[in-house]
Amino acid sequence: GGGGYSSAVSNTPTDIETLKIQAEAQYKNYKKSGDITEQQMGATSKTLTYGNVKVDNKTGRSISVKGYLDKAPSYKGISKEKPCVLIYHTHSTEGYEMLDLGWYSNQYVSRTSDKSRNMIRVGDELTKTLEAAGYKVIHDRNIYDESYNGAYSRSRVTVEKYIKKYPSIQITLDVHRDAIEYSDGTRCKPTAEVNGKKAAQVMIISGCEGDGVENFPQWKKNLVFATHLQSCAEESYSGLMRPVFFCNRKYNMDVTPCSLLLEFGTDANTLEEAVYSAELIGNALVDMLNNL
Fold this sequence. Notes:
This protein is α/β, with parallel strands linked by helices. The chain has helices at residues 5-8, 14-27, 65-69, 119-132, 151-165, 219-236, 271-290; strands spanning 34-39, 48-50, 53-57, 83-88, 103-104, 136-139, 171-178, 187-194, 197-200, 202-207, 244-247, 258-266.
């Protein structure tokens, strides 16, 4: 993190540059449906904070953030010889704005099965960043949400298949985006500036047993991993992370003790901002793995 201004700024990836040019032509005929507001989302009065880690605790349990940060993440013996990370997308067709205009049009639909512009493109960047550092990654580029119902069960079948085939996989990341729309129709894009360039803010979701969620005995280990990744990302890129969302959900996070769901921005962020964030989160994860 924090390096020289110009060298650290990534230029727009060529493929996204092309998509932006196409979008400019497309948008000429579109009518504005509502505003997009840019916001750096941080702590509220209820957020638990320790050091640079913020946790939005929705579980009803009382937890100590420091207690989780004091424990070491439970991955061990990660080698560069075998796949250690699995990246997948339960909601693969979630997409983004292409242009940073401050407004959106309902004539443009961001949800798409085009892998060059949906969540799979964000996963591609995360994969590329980890692989550039020598780690082996399985990136599952399948689409699971042609119908929304049952998407988690469908993605789980693939995840379990990969974990069985590659027992070396210790980390699984289900890469999504969020959506925030206010009652007046304004959409929010959580944004941070990192090295002079806009990045979509990232929210880690870490699950827990309780409130009907069962058979998730290792959730504490997931939260250890979540708080460490949060801390590492914030150390390098202050303001990039929204508070960790800690909730009574499972979302396939029970498959390994280091399984999380990551939300890259919202549908109001641009693809470019989300892809930049994927590179940054990739760097943070590399730092963690290198410091084993």
